[in-house]
Amino acid sequence: MAELADFRTPIKPVWCPGCGNFGILAALRGGLADSGLEPHQFMIVSGIGCHGAVIQYINVNGFHSIHGRTLPVATGIRLANHELKVIAISGDGDGYGIGMGHFIHAMRRNLDITYIVHNNKMYSLTTGQTSPTSDKGFSTKSTPFGSIEIAVNPLTLALSSGASFIARGFAGDPPHLRKLITEAITHKGFSLIDVLQPCVTFNKVNTNDFYKERVYKLEDEGYEPVDKAAAYERAVEWNSRVPIGVIYKEDRPTYEDEVVTIQDMPLVKRPVEGVDITRTMEQFM
Amino acid sequence: MEFSWMIGGEAGFGIMASGLTMSKAFARGGLHVFDTVEYPSLIRGGHNSYQVRVSDREVFSHTGYIDLLVALNKETVHLHKDEMAPTGCIVFNGKEDPEDRFDVHADICLFPIPLSEIVQNLGVKSIMQNTAALGATFGLIGYDLTILEELLTEIFQRKGEKIIQSNIKVARAGYDFVMENHPGGTGIIIKPTDNHRRLVINGNEAVGLGALSAGLRFYSAYPMTPASGLLHFLAAEEQNHNLVVKHTEDELAAILMAIGASHAGVRAMTASSGGGFALMTEALGMAAMTETPLVVMVAQRPGPSTGLATRSEQGDLRFVMHASQGDFLRVVMAPGDVSECYWAAGRAFNLAEKYQIPVLIITDKYLTESHKTVEPFEPVTVDRGLLLNLEEMDAVSNYKRYELTESGISPRVMPGHPNIIFDANSNEHNEYGHDLDNPDNRTIMMDKRMNKIESIVKELEEPVIYGPPGADVTLVGWGSTKGPILEAMLLMTENNISVNFLQIIFIHPFPAEKVSDILKSSKFTIGVENNKEAQLGGVIRERTGIELNKKILKYNGRPFTPEEIANRVMEVMIHG
Q: CA of A152 to nearest chain B CA: how many angstroms apart?
């Protein structure tokens, strides 16, 4: 069985010292190791943003794609070979901004993909602009007089779009996030983990201390993530208390379960040579 | 024998179905057919027309004249009367000649047939007038009605015996009416020649068949005319051939899913028209940078923007050649007829996998939606290039996805093997796929990806010359103008003009040396293109330094007719 060390690579991360990405990386490696699968069974698709380089720091198959487009790439991989455990990783600008359309449709489909979003509530690799999850009034280089839009709430959005596993993690609590990641990987269906991630360089509001003062664990309060209405209540909670943990979970058939042509074997295992089109041609006669 | 039949009427009258039935009926009699359809971007109303050209020799295009026009409404007569052959005939819904004779030329014969009355008397839906018109056509040209009955039986098989019988009844009633009231018919008699069965197929379907034969497993697309036909064909074949066909949320997702599937190891494809392809361009570059094989069909229609959604043009060549940021290698191929569409699809998958690059098949509305009779296709030979098999993967150690090789091609694997864990990367990267932005690595990697061009150029087919070498006029074209040009050549030869035709299928990389040789030895060169700016002409000038002597261009959203090309060439020859 694979151990934590098997998921490490010798490459040194390029992130800023103290970046929340380090906590997510540690939790991710641990979560993968705890899932009981081997490194070669995973495929991680990352996007553009600080998180994007993550594929190089984890010893599993990786595809560094483009801005906002991790989910359709992950979907193609998953449909071609559903024996691969596919994990898509995005940032908030990436996944909830430019990739918002794909996000909603991926959840409707309930493909068995784990989606982890590094949510630092701003664009950081482009040196600090407002993001879809920035709060109204948030002042940045692109919104010097404060953002006028209200923030997207990924959790309520996921609840209404059909994700079958919805959780929030915190980069400052890697052991807790690690458990969430293992649970998401093990869950059959689309799993969203929105991760609160302090950006130590640009975000002076949603800092590590900001979150440490507010986050509480849903499981500590005996919360059961089975009721959608209750999940909505927790999902909108964003004041002196901010919940982390599994918000909602349901068992429903995955997209893969309903695609007839991949029931016997993954597409990659079907022969390419010698396809007979004789009968298909008859319809044109 | 040559005959051109057209049916026209409002969208919703069943024009398309009638036209295709007619094409198939002629093909079943061993005859050769080319058909084409014109329709506005409307579901109901607006004018639709479907022309079927039939001959006892192979035909390559539609014509600019009509021998028999079936007009399901009065508008059809007004819109098409100027296209009538000098002694052509018009079938219209009515009892007798209208007084104004639709203001058509006196030599045109009119056949009033009470189509609406026929269906009313039989107690069937008025939509079935088109079937009565088909029966009438069979009567007017003396064609074997049992062929139509056989086709109607097949077409309505799924709808049950009752529907089949009522369709046959309507067709017979149209036929019988003609026999009783117009026994002399049109004077044109069309007889089946033999039972030789050919396919009646359009460009979309031919690309689809080629892709299936090449082992296509994943097709993702967003509907857009005129590429939608490929989506519909493959979706219907999904279970017969064990594919996944995904109608995605948008064209971005379509190309990205295809790239993901291809990366996982299957043959994957997407298609759209120019507007959808515009959305795909970012991902096209990602396929190039990650060296993921990818096949994309771009079925052109007139732009810019939504342009003319259901018409034809060749205005996207430059766009397809240059789409997406950065310098990267791609193959752009432009098949000119349905056989070449089939072959292009097979060839595209082999090239995409051998060179791990995007391969673009550029077609257009005229090519993708017009049917032509062809012999059944031979199977595609599959070449997956340096894709390692299981035993080879077992033996690999220290796998480098982007290993530097002399050819620039690195061995490729399917992810999931315990021996091989690797990264693909859309950022500039080293041999392992890890980010590396130092200047030396950038140069090395750019060269690696671009160096493949040398091997590609060696294996690409040379451009083709049709007609006699050393002819007085060399026509130069690409894509769907092939058919009208071939037909125009016949007309010009009849007029003692010595002409040949240079068809360029692989437009990128451009076969500069061969084209240059041909053009330098040509006496007078004329580019024929369905666009405003002679885009191929520009490519030729750029790659060979040769300016074509003249250009014949058409950009009104309609394809060339052979007559039009022949006349314009003759004009150029006379007036310069």
A: 21
Q: Name all domains of chain B by residue range, CATH numbers in brackets.
A: 2-182 (3.40.920.10), 200-374 (3.40.50.970), 390-459 (no CATH), 464-575 (3.40.50.920)
Tell me the residue type at B368.
Answer: T
Structure token pair of residue A114: 């784990």
Predicted ipTM beyond 0.95: yes
CB distance B311 to B366 below 8 Å: no
Residue of A nearest to B433 (CA): A56
Whole-angstrom distance, CA of residue B555 vs CA of residue B558? 7
Q: Minimal CA–CA distance to B34: which of B180, B203, B162? A: B203
Identify all chain A residues contacting B419, using CB atoms and an 8 Å cutoff. 40
* Whether the bond into A17 is cis, omega within 30 of 0: no
Q: Tens digit of pLDDT for each residue in B199-242? A: 999 999 999 999 999 999 999 999 999 999 999 999 999 999 99
A-contacting residues of B 408-437, CB under 8 Å? 414-427, 433-435
- Judging contacts by C-beta atoms under 8 Å, the chain B residues touching residue A77 are 260-261, 263-264, 415
pLDDT digits (tens, 9 = 90+) for B50-108: 999 999 999 999 999 999 999 999 999 999 999 999 999 999 998 766 666 788 888 99
Burial label for B167, CB within 10 Å (0-12, 13-18, 19+), is buried
Which residue of B147, B209, B216, B217 to mutate against A (max A Cβ within 10 Å)? Answer: B217
Selection from A194, A190, A181 nearest residue A131 by Cα: A194
Does the reported pTM lie above 0.90? yes
Note whether A66 contacts B264, CB cutoff 8 Å: no
A58 contacts in chain B (CB < 8 Å): none
